[in-house]
C-alpha cells in the first residue's frame, strides 16, 4: 500500500508513526524539530489521513506497509518512532527486521495486549453517529462531536479528520468503519516469538497507565537493550501535552540536539 506522508529535512532517516485515529499532522511539530538534524518521514497509516482505505486492518498489514514504505524510499537504517498503535507497528517491525533499523523509540505503549479502552470506543461511536446526509455545515458536525466527547482537546483532535468532499457534504478522512470493525486487532499484544537487541527507548506519560512499571520485564524480554523514561504530567498523548520535554528526551537518546530554528512555529 502506498502511504501518504509528510517529509522534512535531510540526513539519517527518521520515520514517525502516529496512533489510532491519528494523522501525520499530529506529529508535524516534533517532526520539524527533528528535521534540523534528520530526514523525517511522517506517514498516514492505512485507513488514516490521506492514505488508502482497506477492509484489512491488523498489525501484520501495518507492518508490511512500513516495510514497503522503507523499500520504496530506499531508506537505510531508519530510526523508528511510534506512538500507541504506531509504537506496536514499530515494535513488530523491529522484531521482524532488526538489522533494517538503527534505533527504536516507543511512546506510551507496552508489548502486552490491552482490554478495549472505553474512551476509544466512545470516540469511534461518536464519529459513526454522524449522518453526513443530515449536515451540510462543519458547525453542525462539530456540535455533535462536542456533545458526545467531553474533552475539547480530544474533540479537536478528532475533528482534524473532518473534510469537505463537495460544496455541501463532509466526510471523515479515516476509514472509521474498518477501524471500528477491527478494533480488537489494535489492542493485541506484540506476539512475535523473537527478541531484538536494537537500542530502544520507551517513553511513558507520567499520568498515563499504558506502561506500568510491572511491564518493564516484559518489554526487556523482547527488547533487552531498552531503557525507560517518564515524562511527568503528560497523558497518553505525550506529544501534545509535553512537546518540549519529548523533544529533549528524543534529542538525548538520538545524541543530536533538536530545537526550533529561527522563525519556526
Feature tags:
Rossmann fold, alpha/beta, globular, 265 residues, 9 strands, 7-stranded mixed β-sheet, 11 helices, 2 domains, two-stranded antiparallel sheet
Structure write-up:
The chain has eleven helices and nine strands. Residues 260-265 have low confidence and may be disordered. The longest helix is centred in the first third of the chain and has 14 residues, at 59-72. The two termini are 32 Å apart. With 265 residues, the chain is an alpha/beta fold. The protein has two domains: 5-114 and 187-254, 3-Layer(aba) Sandwich (Rossmann fold); 118-181, no CATH class. Helices cover 36% and strands 18% of the residues. It has helices spanning 28-34, 59-72, 85-96, 118-128, 138-148, 152-159, 176-181, 183-186, 216-222, 238-241, 243-254; strands spanning 5-8, 12-17, 38-43, 79-83, 103-107, 162-166, 169-172, 200-205, 226-231. The strands form two sheets. It has a seven-stranded mixed beta sheet with strand order 1-3-2-4-5-8-9, with helices on both faces. The chain has a two-stranded antiparallel ribbon with strand order 6-7. Strand 4, helix 3 (85-96) and strand 5 form a beta-alpha-beta unit. It is globular and about 55 Å long. 39% of the residues are buried.
Amino acid at each position: 500500500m502506498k502511504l501518504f506522508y509528510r517529509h522534512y529535512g535531510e540526513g539519517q532517516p527518521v520515520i514517525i508513526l502516529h496512533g489510532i485515529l491519528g494523522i501525520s499532522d499530529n506529529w508535524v511539530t516534533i517532526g520539524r524539530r527533528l528535521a534540523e538534524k534528520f530526514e523525517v518521514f511522517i506517514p498516514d497509516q492505512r485507513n488514516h489521513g490521506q492514505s488508502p482505505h482497506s477492509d484489512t486492518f491488523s498489525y501484520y498489514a501495518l507492518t508490511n506497509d512500513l516495510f514497503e514504505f522503507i523499500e520504496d524510499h530506499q531508506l537505510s537504517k531508519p530510526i523508528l518512532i511510534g506512538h500507541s498503535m504506531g509504537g506496536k507497528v514499530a515494535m513488530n517491525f523491529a522484531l521482524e527486521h532488526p538489522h533494517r533499523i538503527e534505533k527504536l523509540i516507543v511512546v506510551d505503549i507496552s508489548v502486552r495486549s490491552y482490554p478495549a479502552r472505553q474512551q476509544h470506543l466512545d470516540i469511534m461511536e461518536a464519529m459513526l453517529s454522524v449522518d453526513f446526509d443530515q449536515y451540510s455545515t462543519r458547525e453542525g458536525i462539530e456540535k455533535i462531536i462536542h456533545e458526545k466527547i467531553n474533552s475539547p482537546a480530544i474533540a479537536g483532535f478528532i475533528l482534524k479528520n473532518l473534510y469537505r468532499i463537495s460544496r455541501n457534504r463532509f466526510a471523515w478522512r479515516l476509514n472509521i468503519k474498518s477501524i471500528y470493525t477491527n478494533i480488537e486487532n489494535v489492542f493485541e499484544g506484540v506476539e512475535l516469538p523473537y527478541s531484538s537487541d536494537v537500542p530502544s527507548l520507551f517513553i511513558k506519560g507520567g499520568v498515563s497507565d499504558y506502561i506500568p512499571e510491572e511491564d518493564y520485564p516484559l518489554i526487556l524480554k523482547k527488547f533487552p537493550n531498552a531503557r525507560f523514561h517518564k515524562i511527568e504530567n503528560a497523558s497518553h498523548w505525550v506529544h501534545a501535552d509535553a512537546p518540549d520535554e519529548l523533544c529533549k528526551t528524543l534529542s538525548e537518546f538520538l545524541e543530536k540536539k533538536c530545537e526550533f530554528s529561527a522563525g519556526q512555529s
